[in-house]
Amino acid sequence: MRSVFFLFSFLLSACSPVMTQRQNNADGMTRFRKWVGENYKFTKDMKKARLKGEIVVAFTVDTIGILTDFEILKDLGFGTGEELVRVLDFSNIGFGRWRPGMQDGKPVSVRYTIPVTINAK
């Protein structure tokens, strides 16, 4: 059995502007977490290694709600971080845009860091 657990506790980066409204996915974080879990693909090597642990990825949600500038901060090897980036990048098409952050009534880009726990049994 394989599983992807989203401990989706967003950590705003220090480089983010002060905002009056944080962005979030227009369709809701619960659906987004589920969508990412359904689209994350474990390779044969990941399954064989029975990887279990946390991947941490940072990304920017730009002023029109597109996820960009992905950075793998921690992975488990075997392409785990790259797969998460692939899924997050694909979410721009497969899931939809996010609402941008707002500052003084104008959309702003915001940097997020997310930890994702996987278990490739």
How are the elements arranged and paired?
Blueprint: E1 2-6, E2 11-12, H1 29-39, H2 44-49, E3 52-61, E4 67-74, H3 80-94, E5 101-103, E6 106-108, E7 110-120
Antiparallel strand pairs: 1-7, 2-7, 3-4, 3-7, 5-6
Q: What number is the mean pLDDT?
A: 80
Low-pLDDT residue spans: 5-23
Largest sheet: 5 strands, antiparallel
Q: What fraction of the residues are assigned to beta strands by DSSP?
A: 25-35%
Number of helices: 3
Shape: elongated
By CATH reckoning, the class would read Alpha Beta
What's the CATH architecture? 2-Layer Sandwich
SS-derived structural category = alpha+beta
Oligomer: single chain
Specify the helix fraction band. 25-40%
CATH topology: Fusion Protein Consisting Of Minor Coat Protein, Glycine Rich Linker, Tola, And A His Tag, Chain: A, Domain 2
Number of strands: 7
Order of helices and strands: EEHHEEHEEE
Measured between the Cα atoms of the first and last residue, the distance is: 5 Å
Tally of individual domains? 1
Radius of gyration: 15 Å
Structure description:
With 121 residues, this protein is α+β, with helices and mostly antiparallel strands. It has one domain: Fusion Protein Consisting Of Minor Coat Protein, Glycine Rich Linker, Tola, And A His Tag, Chain: A, Domain 2 (2-Layer Sandwich), CATH 3.30.1150. 26% of the residues lie in helices and 35% in strands. It contains three helices and seven strands. The strands form two sheets. Strands 1, 2, 3, 4 and 7 form a five-stranded antiparallel beta sheet that branches. The radius of gyration is 15 Å and the shape is elongated.
